[in-house]
Design a protein that fits this description.
There is one protein chain. The protein is of the alpha/beta class and 452 residues long. It is built from 18 helices and 11 strands. A 5-stranded parallel beta sheet has the order 2-5-8-1-9, with helices on both faces. A two-stranded antiparallel ribbon has the order 3-4. Strand 6 and strand 7 (304-307) form a beta hairpin. The two termini are 41 Å apart.
Length: 452
C-alpha cells in the first residue's frame, strides 16, 4: 500500500471531489491510522481497531466517490454494497457475510493481475515459442527406423534458420494477417443456481467447484489471427507461471490489513419510530447481522477463513426519514466517527463543472473532439448551468451533483446528435444558448420532473 500523509490523501481527493472537507479529513485520518497501527509493537498492535465511519448526507454529494477514490488511491481491496440487498439470516436473500466473500474475490483478482504483470514478459516469450511450433512444427524424429532418423537429423540444421527467420517476421508484425488454429478449453458447467437461505452461499460455491472438477473439460478449436492467438497463449502461459497459493495468501492478508467496505443506504435498514409499530421485514435483523462483521469475526470463504477485525467499514445514508440515532445502539457504537456532508449549492456546482480532473465540461469537450468539433463554454454559461441545477433541485427532488449530468446531456443533445453532419467545427456555448435550450423546461415544473 503506498504511504500517504493525511494532507496528501486530502490533496489527491481534491482532484476529483469538490468540498466535503470534513469527510475527506476523516477518511484521511482513518487511512493514516492503518499505517500507524503497523508501527506499533505486536502485543498492542492487535488491540487497535479501525475507527469506522458513518457518513450522513443527501444523495449526490460525494459519499460513494470519496470511498471509491480512497480505495483506488491506496490500491486497497474495495467493495461497495447496498444495505437493502441483504436480509437477516433465515430469510431468502443474501446474508451479510457475502460482503467479505466478495471482498476476498476482489482481492484475489487484484493480486492475480499484479502477479500476471510480473511474469507477462516471460509468458509472452513462451507464447511465441508455442506460436512458432504451430506455424512451423518441429521435424519428428523416428528412432525406430535408423535411415529415416538419420535423414531427419541431417535435415534439422536447415530447420533452425527457418524458425529464426519466422521469429523475426513474428516480432516485426509481418505475420499479423495470418490465421492459426488454436485448441482452447472451456468450462463445462451446468446452469445451476442455489438460492441463499440461512447462508447457503458457500454451499453454492462448493457445488460449482465440485461439478467443475467432475465434468470433463470441453475442448474447442478455433481459427484466430496471430495477434489474438499470441494474447490467448500469453494468458495461458501466465496462468501456469503464477503460484495461486501465494496469490491467495497475499490476497487474504491484504483484505485483513487494508480492506475497505462501503455500505450504502444504511438508513434504509433503519426502522423509524413510526415503522416500528408495523410488521418489520428484518430491518433490524440486518443491523444485528452486521454487528459481528463490523466488530470483528471470522468469515468462511472458498479461499479459507478471513478475519474482519481490521477491515475499514464506511457506512453512508441520507437519513431523510430515519435518524442516525435510530440505528440500533450496538451498531452506532461500531460506527464511532460521524461525518455530515454538506448539500451542494451554485458555487460548488460551478466548480464541479470545471475544476476536477474528470469535470463534466472536460468530458464533453473530449467526446465531441472525436467528431472534430471544438466546443467552448463561456464562464457565464457555466454559471447559468449551475444556477439552473440548483433551481431544479429545489423545485423537484434534490439529487445533488447528479442533476448536472441530466442538464448537460439535455443542453448538448442536439449537438451530440448532429455532430457528424455539423460543418461549423467550433461551437460556442453562451448564456443565450443555455437559456434557449433549458428555460422552458425549467419554468414548467411538471416537465422538469420528467426531463431534468
Amino acid at each position: 500500500m503506498p504511504l500517504f500523509t493525511p494532507q496528501e490523501i486530502v490533496a489527491a481527493l481534491d482532484k476529483y471531489i469538490i468540498g466535503q472537507d470534513k469527510a475527506k479529513k476523516a477518511v484521511a485520518i482513518a487511512l493514516r491510522n492503518r499505517w500507524r497501527r503497523k508501527q506499533v509493537p505486536p502485543p498492542l498492535r492487535d488491540e487497535i481497531a479501525p475507527k469506522n465511519i458513518l457518513m450522513i448526507g443527501p444523495t449526490g454529494v460525494g459519499k460513494t466517490e470519496i470511498a471509491r477514490r480512497l480505495a483506488a488511491l491506496t490500491a486497497s481491496p474495495f467493495v461497495k454494497v447496498e444495505a437493502t440487498k441483504f436480509t437477516e439470516v433465515g430469510y431468502v436473500g443474501r446474508d451479510v457475510e457475502s460482503i467479505i466473500r466478495d471482498l476476498v474475490d476482489m482481492a484475489v483478482n487484484m493480486v492475480k493481475q499484479e502477479e500476471t504483470k510480473k511474469v507477462v514478459i516471460q509468458a509472452r516469450e513462451m507464447a511465441k515459442e508455442r506460436l512458432l511450433d504451430l506455424l512451423l512444427p518441429r521435424p519428428k524424429k523416428r528412432p525406430s527406423h535408423k535411415d529415416a532418423y538419420l535423414e531427419v537429423v541431417q535435415k534439422e540444421p536447415s530447420y533452425e534458420p527457418v524458425r529464426e527467420k519466422m521469429r523475426a517476421m513474428l516480432n516485426e508484425g509481418k505475420l499479423d494477417e495470418r490465421f492459426v488454429e488454436l485448441e482452447t478449453t472451456e468450462k463445462a458447467l451446468p446452469v445451476m443456481e442455489i438460492f441463499s437461505i440461512a447462508g447457503l452461499e458457500e454451499m453454492d460455491i462448493s457445488f460449482r467447484e465440485m461439478f467443475e472438477s467432475m465434468l470433463p473439460k470441453k475442448k474447442k478449436r478455433k481459427k484466430v489471427k496471430i495477434p489474438e492467438a499470441l494474447e490467448i497463449l500469453t494468458q495461458e502461459e501466465s496462468q501456469k507461471l503464477i503460484d495461486m497459493d501465494k496469490v491467495i495468501s497475499i490476497a487474504k492478508k491484504r483484505v485483513e490489513e487494508s480492506g475497505i467496505v462501503f455500505i450504502d443506504e444504511i438508513d434504509k435498514v433503519t426502522a423509524s419510530d413510526s415503522a416500528r409499530r408495523g410488521p418489520d421485514v428484518s430491518r433490524e435483523g440486518v443491523q444485528r447481522d452486521l454487528l459481528p462483521v463490523i466488530e470483528g469475526t471470522t468469515v468462511n470463504t472458498k479461499y479459507g477463513m478471513v478475519r474482519t477485525d481490521h477491515i475499514l467499514f464506511i457506512a453512508a445514508g441520507a437519513f431523510h426519514i430515519a435518524k442516525p440515532s435510530e440505528l440500533i445502539p450496538e451498531l452506532q457504537g461500531r460506527l464511532p466517527i460521524r461525518v455530515e456532508l454538506d448539500s451542494l449549492g451554485e458555487k460548488e456546482f460551478k466548480r464541479i463543472l470545471t475544476e476536477p480532473e474528470n469535470a463534466l465540461v472536460k468530458q464533453y469537450k473530449a467526446l465531441l473532439k472525436t467528431e472534430g468539433i471544438e466546443i467552448e463554454f463561456e464562464e457565464q454559461a457555466i454559471e447559468e448551468i449551475a444556477k439552473i441545477a440548483v433551481d431544479v433541485n429545489e423545485k423537484t427532488e434534490n439529487i445533488g451533483a447528479r442533476r448536472l449530468y441530466t442538464i448537460m446531456e439535455k443542453l448538448l443533445e442536439d449537438i451530440s446528435f448532429e455532430a457528424p453532419q455539423i460543418k461549423e467545427k467550433k461551437v460556442l456555448i453562451n448564456t443565450h444558448y443555455v437559456r434557449d435550450k433549458l428555460s422552458n423546461i425549467v419554468k414548467d415544473v411538471d416537465l422538469s420532473r420528467y426531463i431534468l
